[in-house]
């Protein structure tokens, strides 16, 4: 019996790296959902957190491999390209966080922007490469196509800006609070998890600096949120203003001294 058009298409797709790129995004979303449903189990949260990072690393690895094959990515100019290529910056960040997660380290908020990207990549691939061949009624197929197209066109730009906001929140929280606290804890209790946490947080701060230098939109949004914090401190905590300004200047100096 002849294979259905869908199975024929599927056999063709599984020979393409893009299909596994799609599966990586799908599994990223699945484990992200499971991560948020596991709030009663810290061990389950750590597992799904690590799985999200693993699949995100795979998706960026596939893209970078294609870059490498086409000559766009070269080992000799790795550091130069790290300052220029978004995909390489994300890959290095999530790969390092994934390795650190083996020791139980978690960077709160680090998953949100990669998952947002995964959602739209997944929707677009499904709409363009799988939906046309699904063995369902044409009217249902057209409805799904229209709904997915509407979702992408209506929310893509808003969600991308939201992803940048999450990166700012995570970068600022990691630099101003998370990293200093973990360094103090590491000095009082030296263990593998503390070391991994410091490395993970430092990696995210360096990643944020690379994104800050590379993206004008991210710089504008960061200044806007810092201004809002300044306004809140001045209006609600006037006695704390000198300490806040001093701490902000100290962190800013350290931030600009980070190697990038």
From TrEMBL:
Which chain regions cross the lipid bilayer?
20-40, 52-68, 88-111
Predominant cellular place of this UniProt entry's protein: membrane
Query: Which protein are we looking at?
Result: Pore and endoplasmic reticulum protein of 33 kDa
**Family, similarity comment:** Belongs to the PER33/POM33 family.
A GO-annotated cellular component: membrane
Q: How does it sit in the membrane?
A: Multi-pass membrane protein
Q: Give the subcellular location.
A: Membrane
InterPro entries under this entry?
A: PER33/POM33_regulator, TMEM33/Pom33
Q: Which one Pfam family would you cite for this protein?
A: TMEM33_Pom33
Taxonomic source organism: Zygosaccharomyces rouxii
Alphabetical keyword list = Membrane, Transmembrane, Transmembrane helix
For biological process, the GO terms are: endoplasmic reticulum tubular network organization; membrane organization
